[in-house]
Design goal:
This protein has 206 residues and is α/β, with parallel strands linked by helices. The chain has one domain: Rossmann fold, CATH 3.40.50. It has nine helices and five strands, in the order βαβααααββαααβα. The radius of gyration is 18 Å and the shape is globular. The protein starts with a strand and ends with a helix. The model has no long low-confidence stretch (mean pLDDT 92).
Length: 206
């Protein structure tokens, strides 16, 4: 079983890469999706976030208002660090638990050949040892800003604050086994992903 880490800055196109690997039969462990599960209404992690930052970041149903919290947190690097310190251990533990379960099933009928851990902060959080190989998805900075503004309906300033809280692309690329640049659009990115997939399959079958 080969474990691929998929990472990249906000607006880089990680979703496209994730869906490509999913379509090829890879099992996807998405850190953002796991974070949503762990912060469901009434969850211990949701309670800890409310205790640390205030109950105003909870909706009436007890769920976490991620957009409101994100807008507030990303205005201050210290808040970002505090939130990461609060949430990352729980998310990491759950990713590890799921990987161990998949490893235990490896070799059995229907067990996956490829597992992808999708995490924007894979490298910043020190999770490199979780995976065998790293795929970094990137795009030109202005294109990333445009995508996020269009997708999330936020200002350019808000996008750039979030980008500033992430590892610079050149530092991510320096640690990558494969790089997929999505600046030129979906078709060009998919062609590059096909090349990466061939390399992944060859290694998974080695």
């Amino acid at each position: 079983m080969l474990i691929i880490g998929i990472t990249g800055g906000i607006g880089s196109g990680k979703g496209l890469a994730t869906e490509f690997f999913r379509s090829r039969g890879a099992v996807i462990l998405d850190a953002d999706e796991i974070a949503r599960e762990l912060t469901s209404p009434g969850s211990p992690l949701c309670a800890r976030i409310a205790e640390a930052f205030g109950a105003s970041f909870l909706r009436e149903d007890g769920s976490l208002d991620r957009r409101k919290l994100g807008a507030w947190v990303f205005s201050d690097p210290q808040r970002v660090a505090r939130l990461n310190a609060l949430t990352h251990p729980s998310i990491l533990a759950e990713v590890q638990r799921r990987l161990e379960r998949l490893r235990a099933e490896a070799g059995g009928k229907g067990s996956p050949e490829v597992v992808c851990v999708v995490a924007p902060l894979l490298l910043e959080a020190g999770w490199r040892d979780l995976v065998d190989r790293v795929l970094v998805v990137t795009a030109e900075e202005g294109e990333r800003v445009r995508r996020v503004m269009e997708r999330d309906g936020v200002s350019e300033e808000a996008v750039r604050r979030r980008m500033a809280a992430q590892m610079p692309p050149e530092q991510q690329i320096a640690q990558a086994d494969w790089v997929v640049d999505t600046t030129q659009g979906k078709e060009a990115a998919l062609r590059r992903l096909e090349e990466v997939w061939e390399a992944v399959r060859a290694e998974a079958h080695a």
